[in-house]
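Quick one: structure for this chain?
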Amino acid sequence: MLSKLDITRNWLPRYTGMPLEAFGDYILLTNFGNYVDKFAEQFNCEVYGRDRPMQAATNQDGLTIINFGIGSSNAATIMDLLSSIAPKGVLFLGKCGGLKNSTEIGHFILPIAAIRGEGTSNDYFPPAVPALPSFKLHKFVSDKILAHGVDYRTGVIYTTNRRVWEHDGQFHQMLHDMTCIGIDMETATLFIVGHANEISRGALLLVSDVPVTPDGVKTEQSDKKVTEKWVDLHLQIGIEAMTGIGQMGEKIKHFRY
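Got it. Here's what it folds into:
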């Protein structure tokens, strides 16, 4: 029988079209193909996987970006596959729905934790294990956000497998009772599976809609406006943060138990 390493070393190129030796030590993850295209255009590098489930590119500084798709199962898959190359740090550049009256479209959120409402992470650790980022990695991201003169918020993200919930009043009430700052479909899974694979990880989330307010549900038109106004900055902060970690050479240690 193949070992986990045998499987993941075969499947990471299979899913992305990128050979293992082309992956860098630091990884940006996203749900959107346009992030990969913008990255490749900025650094004049090749995009792999146009005909695969995931697309990837690596710049001259050894920073790789991967579009792994949408949802917690894909999030678990990419974090398992990345164990084959043992990256030094992984940052998720995702979008989320804001759940507070003080949260506005275009705000950035650095989650201090995520609630595991998706179920996928239960295959890795018992439900009582918290989904947490690597805080040293988040410090680098925080510094880069402030260097751009932008504010950000911290709080707990609720991660769900449920894509269409905006019409459900009981679900809204549950989110309110949990006092979460935002909702998405990947963050808790990325944190937990990163922990399981001893990968340092973080998330910088862009609030793309406020679905608990009237007329706040994301649409094709509203998401296009978000892309035009904030995606370039979102991507640039991620690039600078992960490049900075690599250049400083400061190890983010994962403790074993």
